[in-house]
Structure formats: C-alpha cells, structure tokens
Amino acid sequence: MTESKIEKSLALIRQAVAEYGPDVAFACSFGAEDVVLLDLISRAGRSIAVITLDTGRLPQETYDVMDACRKRYSMPIEVYFPDAAEVEAMVREHGLNLFRDSVELRKRCCEIRKIHPLRRALAGRKAWMTGVRRDQADSRQQMAAVEDDAHFGIRKFNPLIEWSEAEVWAYIREHDVPYNALHDRHYPSIGCAPCSRAIAVGEDPRAGRWWWEQEDGVAECGLHASPLKKR
Ligand code: SF4
User: Record-annotated residues binding [4Fe-4S] cluster (predicted)?
Assistant: First the structure.
C-alpha cells in the first residue's frame, strides 16, 4: 500500500466535497472496500452523507459492522428501507424466495429492495461516491475514478477504483478498521443473506453472489452495472 495511492483517494474525496458539498452522498454497503472508504472520509476531515440500504434480507454480521462503524466514526448513517407496499405486493404474488425462480424475478427483487430505495436516497443529490474497484469484476474494467452515471443522472466518484484487494486488506489491518465478520468466513462479496455465499480457493471473488444463475458468468445487482461515461 503506497502512501501516494492513499493521498490520491483522499484528494478525490476532498474534490467531491469541494465540488458538491452536501449534494454528494457515499453509498455504503459496509463491505471491505466501503469500510476503508469510510475511514478515508473520516481522515479527510470532510462531512459526507453516508447512506445505506437495508433490504430486509441482510445478514446479522452486516448490522454488526454498521453499528461498529457508527460508534467508531461518530458519523450519522442514513438507512433507507424498501417501500413496504411494493415488497408486500411482490411477496404476495411471487413468494419470499422469488429470486431462486428466475433471473427476471431476482432482478425484480433487487429492483424493489435495492434500486428503488437507492433512487430515493439519491434524489436531489448531484453526485454519489462508491467503493468499487476496477479489478472486482470484468464488468467494472471500464469504470473511472470520476464518471457521469447515466443510470442515476448524477456524477459518480470512485476513490478506490485503482486499489487492489490486497491493498484494501492491508489498510484494514494497519488502521484497525471494523469489517464484516463474514469476510473471515471466505465471503469476499456480501449482499443479502440468501444471495451471498462463501467461495472456494480459486473461484472468482463475485462467484458467491447469485451463484445459481449461469447467465453470463458473474452477475451484478444493477447498482453499478449502468452505462457509464468516463470523465
Ligand atoms: S440480493 Fe437477493 S434478496 Fe437481496 S434484493 Fe437482490 S435478489 Fe433480493
């Protein structure tokens, strides 16, 4: 982990706040990258709204790290929930485990439990920040540090875009950053409990998400799969 890479990330955080002030929000899922970004935001001494989604299907370990971060960084965390009427209608029609029945229904579940609440969380904002890294998946290879997010119609900042997985973990260890206990049980990517699993040695890091779908290899939930323009 080079100090220059940390400085570059800190500079991007400061740039986002300088350009957008209260109109930029960090969408945090409390995975390894996101807790590093939370620590960097704290180090940068900048106030950024931290938003997170409670889909209603999260593992207990995610709630635990959420609260550990709340205490450690003394930052308010805005938790957004799905619309109760939408979830009720979906479950009434398709059952609680609809995501196992088809790719279409899995995407519907992600749409209602994640995309709609994220839209609400980002409404009125002009930019958002994420902890995505380029080498997490082939679908993220084209992502840049600053982009126009065509899907949400706002600017997107990715301060960790150039970090490797090893650098993320070196930072967590060195700075004693709270992290999701599921990572110690071989979950590299953590989302909802029924849609995340541990991976075996040699498997793609995102193979533990929606593993029953064979569609196009590694699946995305849609939060970061939108068409993007590099800046
Ligand atoms: S990850 Fe699974 S449970 Fe969570 S919103 Fe998507 S399909 Fe539904």
Answer: 109-110, 192, 195
Residue 71, C-beta contacts closer than 8 angstroms, at least 6 positions apart = none
Residues 25 and 48 sit within 8 Å (Cβ to Cβ): yes
Between the CA atoms of 117, 122, 151 and 84, what dihedral angle is there, to the nearest 10 degrees?
Answer: 10
Helix-, strand-, coil-residue percentages of the chain, each rounded to 5: 45, 15, 40
Dump pLDDT digits (tens) for 73-84. Answer: 998 899 999 999
Burial of 214 (0-12, 13-18, 19+ CB in 10 A): exposed
- Which ligand 1 atom is at minimum distance from the Cα of 112? 5
> What would the pLDDT profile of 148-196 be if each residue is shown by its tens digit?
998 899 999 999 999 999 999 999 999 999 999 999 999 988 999 999 9
So where are the chain's domains? 3-230
Active-site annotation holder among 168, 218, 221, 223: 221
Strand boundaries in 45-163, DSSP class E: 49-53, 77-80, 127-129, 146-149, 154-157
**Top-level CATH class of 3-230?**
alpha beta
The answer to whether residue 69 is catalytic is: no
